[in-house]
Structure formats: structure tokens, C-alpha cells
Design a protein that fits this description.
By secondary structure, this protein is of the alpha/beta class. Helix 4 packs across helix 5. Keywords: Membrane, Transmembrane, Transmembrane helix.
């Protein structure tokens, strides 16, 4: 039986005792006064009504307390594991060695294809099987909780490496439950007992979000929290390094657009790439603050260089879809009196937004202000094709694989068809990561509009950009 179920039963029993014992004592006292003290026992209708009323009130009171206890349950109603708040409170006192997060990646697909009743049965069976499996491997006092719909948190008094091995075996042995295929992903982290459990859970959640394969990353929670604080501090200080990558215009043979890449500089002078710091920034809820910092720097730089030069940079789709952010962004661009068309916003999403029509209206509103919009990494995900079907983008930046595989017959055929489509729609085409003359000449033959890469021109710093184009 799950530890959560045992503790919940114990909790309800204690509540029943707390409610029942005083009530029973009260009934005993009343009965004693009515019947025992008098030598002649005469039960009147009045006495009967009083006793009946007391008994009814007592039963109702006990039932009310039990119902109240159920509403304040420790359990997740679907799986009988601990709910998130109960899990955190329990772990504070137990102080386990390891925290783990187990995610069912295809949970929504299971619900859609097998029905949510079968999904709930499968979830219960997964948790029960996990509890038994861990017990068989010598893990005691197993604490399992529900972090969110598809995520389960585990607190285990065993070393992280051991838990890593056990969970790896579990996901292999139980990849099918009730003839339903289960796709797991998990991560484990050492509990240093110094940081809050919520912080540790947030860190391990970031690990899982960033994983592409079913592998395990074991990290020191202390170091991860220190990194989180360092990133928060760097953003507060706006400690960002901007590099400008030239785009060569194939027709004029001049550079008139620069794409911007950004690194974050910590106090110890470590440089972090976006793939490291952005997930943490987003998880902390600081994505919009970061995007506004970037936008301000881009606009400021644009105001210091020649008006023939445009700057292209990435903004988070989540920021763009926020009305408050969009208003602030447009106000920043307007305040510096720069030509809006010199600002090119790059967007990229792996998955198509669920409300695509509303999102495209937002993009269209941005376009009406004169700002240009580009799809980044075009061809790397299905969402880019969904968006281009319904929206007239100004530019398309093709995924690097098209350049790298330009000599591959299949890749080249697809590249040509996409270029043809863009030409017919009057969309400017950009090839990135051009590293040698062979790629460069081939792209010229394909009539690509812009090329970027070390084979074209090396990136430059903000200072070099201003000197060259002031």
C-alpha cells in the first residue's frame, strides 16, 4: 500500500477520534444526569427528544468533520499519491537523499485514444507498480506525489546513482500498462537539505523540460540553485553580450542586415549561451523582462548606426502574444524615432500555437506598424509550415541543415521547392551557416537572397558595428 494512503487513513482516524471522543463523553454525561442520578427512571417524551437530538447532533458533527477532512486530503484524487503541497510538507520532515521527477510524455495521447477512464486506471497502476518496484530494490519510506497532470515527484532515501539505475529499469520493464504503451522521461537530483523543496523541484523540472531523449541527468541542486541566482543577478544588471552576424545581400553584394546572437555574462565572467540561460529565465517567469532588455538594446544600437542597416533578433512567441509586453515593445521602438522596417523580429516555435488565428492577428498588427517579421529555422518543425500557410512573412531563415546538406539529393530537392514557394510569395530568403565557397556558390545558383556564416563574413561586436556603420 502507498505511504500516502496509509498516512491519509491515519489522519482521518485521528480526526474521527478528535471529533468522536468529546461527543461520546458529552452523551455519557447527559445520560448520567437524566437516568442514573434519579432512583426512579422515568423517560418522558421530552427526555427522549433531548437524547435523540444529542445523538443526531453528535453523528452529524462526526460526519461533518470527516467530510472536512476529506476535502483537506493529503491525496491526489486520481492516483492516491500525495498532492503537491502534501508532498512538500512530508519531505521537509523526512529529508530524503534524492528527489526524482517521472513524466508520462504521451499522457494526453493516451486520454484521447483510450478514454480518460482507462487513463486514470493506468495512472493508478503505474504508481502502484512503481511503489512495488522500488520496494523490491530495497527502497523504504517511498514518497510519491503528483506534481502536475503528467508529472510525478518522488522522494527516496537512497543515493541518486542507485535511483537512476532503478528508474531506468522501471521505465524499460513497465513501458506498457494494461496494453497501453507508456512513454516515460525522468530526471533525478540530490537533495542537499539546505534549499527549499520547491526550488529543488523547479530545478529538476527544468531538466526534464530540456530533455529530448529518455536519459538521466544527475545534478547537484546547490550548484543549480547558485546558477539560477547568478542568472537572475545577470539579468537584473542587464549583463548581456551582443554579437552581430552579417547577412550578405546576394544582389548588391553588400551587408545591410545583421542577425543578433546573445550571451549572458555572469559576475565570475562565465559566458552562458541562450540554450543554458533561457530555460531558467522562462521558468522563473522573467522571459518578458529579458525580451524587453534585448529589445531596448537593439533599438538603441539601431539609432547609432546607418539607416540602411537593419537588425534581426529573436523574441519569444510567449512575449509577443502578451498585450502588455507588445504595447511596451511598440512604445520603445516608437520612442527612438527609428524606421520600424529596420527592426526584424525572428519567431520560432516547435509546436503550432493552439489559437493560431488570434496569434496571426497579433503578428499582422505588428506588421502594420512597419516592423518586419521573419521565421527562424524554417523547415525544422511542422509549425513553420502551418504559419506560412496563413501569414505573409517578410523573411524566411532556413534551418542550417539545408545549407549543411546542400549536396544531398533529397535535401536539395526539398530546399529548391521551398525556395520556389518563397519566391512566388515574395518572401526574402536567408541561408545561414554558410562555411565554405562550395556552399556559397551553390546558394548563388539557387538565387538565395541573403547568406550568413563564417564563409561570408565573421561576426562582429557592437562596438565594431557602430564604428563600421556610424
Amino acid at each position: 500500500m502507498l505511504l500516502s494512503t496509509l498516512l491519509e487513513r491515519e489522519r482521518r482516524f485521528k480526526i474521527a477520534l478528535r471529533a468522536g471522543i468529546p461527543a461520546l463523553i458529552f452523551i455519557f454525561v447527559i445520560l448520567y444526569i437524566l437516568f442514573v442520578q434519579d432512583t426512579d427512571i422515568e423517560v418522558s417524551i421530552k427526555d427522549s427528544l433531548i437524547v435523540a437530538g444529542i445523538v443526531f447532533t453528535t453523528i452529524y458533527f462526526i460526519y461533518f468533520m470527516l467530510e472536512l477532512a476529506t476535502k483537506g486530503t493529503l491525496l491526489d484524487k486520481e492516483t492516491d499519491g500525495f498532492n503537491q503541497n502534501a508532498f512538500i510538507e512530508i519531505v521537509k520532515h523526512k529529508k530524503p537523499k534524492t528527489i526524482a521527477l517521472l513524466v508520462i510524455k504521451n499522457l494526453e495521447s493516451i486520454g484521447e485514444n483510450y478514454g480518460y477512464e482507462n487513463l486514470n486506471i493506468a495512472l493508478n497502476d503505474i504508481i502502484d507498480s512503481l511503489d512495488i518496484f522500488l520496494t523490491q530494490y530495497g527502497v523504504k519510506n517511498i514518497i510519491i506525489g503528483r506534481y502536475s497532470r503528467s508529472k510525478f515527484i518522488l522522494a527516496l532515501d537512497k543515493d541518486t546513482k542507485d535511483i537512476e539505475d532503478i528508474l531506468n529499469k522501471f521505465t524499460q520493464n513497465y513501458n506498457s500498462i494494461n496494453n497501453i504503451d507508456i512513454d516515460y522521461i525522468f530526471s533525478v537530483i540530490a537533495n542537499n537539505h539546505k534549499d527549499s523543496i520547491r526550488k529543488i523541484i523547479n530545478l529538476i523540472d527544468i531538466d526534464v523540460i530540456n530533455k529530448q531523449k529518455k536519459k538521466i541527468i544527475v545534478k547537484d541542486s546547490k550548484k543549480e540553485i547558485e546558477l539560477e541566482e547568478a542568472i537572475r543577478d545577470a539579468l537584473k544588471r542587464q549583463s548581456l553580450s551582443f554579437t552581430f552576424r552579417p547577412l550578405l545581400n546576394s544582389n548588391t553584394h553588400k551587408v545591410d542586415i545583421y542577425t543578433i546572437s546573445i550571451k549572458m555574462i555572469l559576475r565570475d565572467q562565465r559566458e552562458l549561451l541562450p540554450r543554458v540561460y533561457l530555460p531558467i529565465i522562462n521558468h522563473l517567469g522573467l522571459g518578458q523582462i529579458y525580451d524587453l532588455v534585448v529589445l531596448k538594446e537593439v533599438v538603441k544600437t539601431a539609432s547609432l548606426i546607418d539607416e540602411s542597416i537593419s537588425l534581426s533578433f529573436n523574441l519569444s512567441p510567449f512575449s509577443i502574444r502578451d498585450r502588455g509586453f507588445l504595447k511596451n515593445a511598440l512604445d520603445i521602438i516608437k520612442a527612438d524615432n527609428i524606421e520600424p522596417s529596420r527592426i526584424i523580429i525572428e519567431i520560432y516555435e516547435k509546436n503550432t500555437h493552439y489559437n493560431i488565428s488570434n496569434y496571426l492577428k497579433i503578428l499582422d498588427n505588428i506588421r502594420t506598424k512597419g516592423i518586419r517579421i521573419s521565421i527562424d529555422n524554417f523547415g525544422s518543425s511542422n509549425s513553420s509550415f502551418d504559419y506560412i500557410k496563413y501569414f505573409k512573412f517578410d523573411m524566411v531563415q532556413f534551418d542550417r541543415d539545408f545549407t549543411r546538406n546542400i549536396n544531398d539529393k533529397n535535401s536539395l530537392a526539398m530546399f529548391k521547392s521551398l525556395l520556389k514557394m518563397c519566391n512566388e510569395l515574395n518572401i526574402i530568403t536567408i541561408a545561414k551557416w554558410v562555411d565554405d565557397d562550395t556552399q556559397k556558390e551553390k546558394l548563388k545558383e539557387l538565387n538565395i537572397d541573403y547568406m550568413q556564416g563564417f564563409g561570408i563574413k565573421k561576426p562582429i561586436s557592437r562596438r565594431e558595428l557602430i564604428i563600421e556603420h556610424n
